[in-house]
Design a protein that fits this description.
The protein is α+β, with helices and mostly antiparallel strands. Helix content is about 25%, strand content about 50%.
Length: about 190
């Protein structure tokens, strides 16, 4: 093979290597929603400011959520959430740090969604609990998509609900996590 024919192959190989070996993924705009349903009313909030890091080499996962970034349909709900229940001035962030227990890298790289279990410590309202959370991972066009749905009980995290509105808020709140993480190597090349 003449040297001139080798250049396109080398360039193609160099372009593919970072994606094929990218094992650390990051996002700063992940989405978390929570939903509480009760006889009297449904409460839903959403944030798009979740910062997350997923390291597929070590199976480590970490994310943090600024509590004040949750948006509600009604501003009064948002004020009560921050001031009365979550005390977001005192506990400004919730976080999770743990690891993926059953990651199958070969299956993940073949494509399609892979169910996983993530185990670790979640901190809400200054209280840390050890949890196992079911989720799903998928590699799609170079991005790592992470989805999880789990429930928490506000009482487990010392979140006190005043007696007057106790019937308005469910004892168990559903939390949905959706992250679209980019390879760290690719991010550092583009920024």
């Amino acid at each position: 093979m003449k040297p001139i024919y080798c250049w396109p192959l080398l360039v193609l190989w160099l372009l593919c290597v970072p994606k094929a070996h990218a094992q650390k993924y990051l996002t700063r705009d992940g989405v978390v929603t929570f939903f509480s349903t009760s006889i009297l009313e449904d409460i839903e909030a959403r944030t798009e400011q979740v910062a997350a890091l997923v390291d597929l080499n070590s199976n480590q996962v970490a994310f943090t959520i600024p509590i004040k970034s949750f948006q509600f349909k009604r501003t009064l709900m948002q004020e009560h959430f921050n001031e009365n229940y979550m005390e977001s001035g005192r506990f400004p962030k919730s976080s999770f740090s743990g690891r993926i227990l059953d990651l199958n890298m070969e299956a993940l790289q073949k494509g399609g969604s892979q169910r996983v279990t993530v185990e670790g410590d979640i901190t809400i309202h200054g209280v840390t609990k050890h949890v196992q959370v079911p989720g799903a991972l998928e590699l799609q066009k170079g991005s790592l998509l992470v989805h999880a749905y789990f429930s928490v009980a506000p009482a487990d995290y010392n979140i006190e609900i005043p007696l007057l509105v106790r019937e308005n808020i469910a004892k168990i709140v559903g939390i949905r996590l959706a992250l679209s993480c980019e390879p760290i190597a690719q991010l550092s090349l583009t920024k």
